[in-house]
Amino acid sequence: MNLITILFIAIGLSMDAFAVSITSGLAIKRFHVNHALKIGIFFGSFQAIMPVIGWLAGFGLRTFISGIDHWIAFGLLTVIGCKMIYESTMMKPDKRENSPLDISVLLILSIATSIDALAVGLSLSLIQVSIILPAAIIGIITFLISTAGVFIGNRFGHIFENKMEILGGLILIGIGIKILIEHTL
User: Fold this and answer.
1) What is the DSSP-derived secondary structure letter of residue 131?
2) Which of 27, 51, 72, 115 could bridge across to 121 with cysteines, CB 3.0–4.6 Å?
């Protein structure tokens, strides 16, 4: 898998975290740079760890499904992409009383926004891609995008939130199609 594809996967996966970061930035009343960094570190770390967990799970399954691995990767990425697009149309204003800076809230948000990365890690394992570079890139890109999202949310609110979810979903579907085409030709 080439670096450009990994970058697109990272950008696609980071869109959930970006949308939540925008909302978090909006919810923070007394904003400091440390707040954006804290949220970025949580989201980036979980986005880097989850593909590794998925990859390890898929590593054990690889020998059983090697003939259809590209179809599974395509299916997983397409389902994740469609889910992101669907969820972007279902977003409602967040009325939580919890602060996005509380550790328990950050843990829940980090896990929720990185579940898709778990499935991507599984997909990468099935097509026999090493996980170290993709996981690192996914984590770094998510950190950068999430940190920027907090700043944007604090400054501009919900202007971009749904559009980024749709873009992320389309990117993941496109990568799924690319994997399918590369492995069937």
Assistant:
1) S
2) 51
DSSP three-state, residue 120? helix
Cα–Cα distance measured from residue 155 to residue 136, given in angstroms and rounded to the nearest whole number: 29
CA atoms 91, 92, 98, 100: torsion sign:
positive
More confident residue, 25 or 96: 25
How far is Cα 30 from Cα 34, in angstroms, rounded to an integer? Answer: 11
Considering the entire predicted model, what is its pTM?
Answer: 0.73
The residue among 77, 51, 43, 81 whose CA lies nearest residue 167 is 81
Q: Give, to the nearest 10 degrees, the angle between helix 69-90 and helix 3-27.
A: 20
- Give the distance, in angstroms, between the CA of residue 122 and the centroid of all CA atoms in the same chain: 14
What tokens were used for 113?
Answer: 């926004």
**Cβ distance 142 to 13 under 8 Å?**
yes
List C-alpha distances in Å: 47 to 41, 44, 54, 62, 93: 10, 5, 11, 22, 24
pLDDT (tens digit per residue) in 76-123:
778 877 887 887 777 555 444 457 787 888 888 888 788 888 889 988
